[in-house]
Amino acid sequence: MACHRIEELIELLEPAWQKDSDLNLLEFLANLAKEAGFDGELNNLSDEVLIYHLKMRDSDKTEAIPGLKKDYEDDFKSALLKARGII
Asked: Does the predicted model carry a pTM greater than 0.70?
């Protein structure tokens, strides 16, 4: 499981870091943390925050989070009926 997250994080980090190649890795990670709204110490930054931020970084702010998109319903009535097992 950890191996998969490491591979996914590296795959997402590489193209993003190449855009800011003048920064060292820690500076780049600090910038990502700040963009994501993380205020704590850098050593407390989770890989999930980095992964989701990198996935959503260049997307529209109203777009659904990738992990939640599969359960996304456009209207409340359909979501409610689906949750109750009617649909």
From this structure: no
